[in-house]
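Two proteins follow. First one:
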Amino acid sequence: MTDPTVAETTATAVGGLTAGFMLDGQTYKAGAEAGFTGLDFYVAGRCGVLGDVDADIVSAALVFWNPDTIRTQWEASADVMSRADAATLFAACLGTWAERNIRPDALDWSRLAALAAKVAETATIGGAPLFAGWRAMPVPSDPVGAALHHMNSLRELRMARHGGAVLAVGLDPADAVRHNSPGMAALYGWPEAELPEGTAERWAEAEMLTNRATAADYAALSAAEATEFAELAAAAVSG
């Protein structure tokens, strides 16, 4: 399997596997018990790895969110707990979600963890601050937890590559969200608006550039390892 193929083939798995805990009601119940009100926990938890920085730095890392929305949520979370503690709690929610939704016998989680870690450890952190932050978080000792930790790091890596690609082709982040996830635009803080002509073409070009950039990240894997990683990633999201 060539690098572009593994980048394309694993895109859904890498993007979707750990997204489950970010959408889970129990995650936000845990956040509420800690003093958060909702979206502020998502922003502080996911981006707490950046430290106690200004909200504009968080928006720069997230790319696709309305900066005003991020500032509101980031500042709302400031008095709940430190950014580092918010990230730690958010990561713990990933583990709790896995206990309820992931079958330990579904696949060789240790091997998936090892392959994902090999990519994460060798990938350049340039342009990927959230990836760098999550990569530096403590790795759980159990196989499922370790695999999900590294897969979440790779999710942040691909999202960073995608954000850079969208900007590189001249596509406005708000229009990117309106095109690809119209139902999420309001959550991201963007009002309804007519999409400019050529949006779909620019989106397709950005996807191509994202896969090209991600291919470089996966170059750490041999052809056999790339095939194995793709198979294990697919099994992880299906089972």
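Second one, unrelated to the first:
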Amino acid sequence: MTRLYTYIIPVDSGLAPNPFWDWCTLAVCTPNHQGSAVKPGEWIAGFSTKETGYQFIYAMKVDERIHMNDYFNDPRFQSKKPDIAGNWKQRCGDNFYSQLSSGEWVEHPNPFHESMRDIDTKIPYVFVGHKFWYLGRKRVDTPHEFLPMIGGRGARVNHPQELVDKFKAWVQMSFKPGITAIPLDAEYGSGCINKDALGKKSCD
């Protein structure tokens, strides 16, 4: 049995999820805040709001659940530290919390989560996946049979296994792994993308 966690993404700015630099990471969003106990091999999938039709945005197969301070110091994820003076993709980094020896959390400069340190670090774990499907602004309508898995508050996980298996098969057969398009809300949300990046056809 492989569980699937589903949740709503109200703003897809490139922060959560952050699909860049060869890894899809989820550090400061609903599944993190509520302490979802996602295990390696299980999936997380994000969808748009009810008002926009619960469109499919991304799915990831989780490889690791990493403590936020370890994530900050891990050599694999240094590119995910936000560079405020960098290009739009560099500004979208989600790796901006570290912990002092006293246990106190430090929030490093970022364009997203000012004054959210206590919420983001209450349950300080990051979900990391090397295999993922991120559609961004090319999000698609979710097949009707999967809609019962979507909606409500928080991350949902108690889905029928048969439906989970069908959903995973649909994702893997329908989409190419990796990044399909840049985030839908990048130009407008949280300063993640600047005007010079408009019109780009890829995330490079």
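SUMMARY FIELD: The chain is about 15% helix and 20% strand. The longest strand covers residues 56-61.
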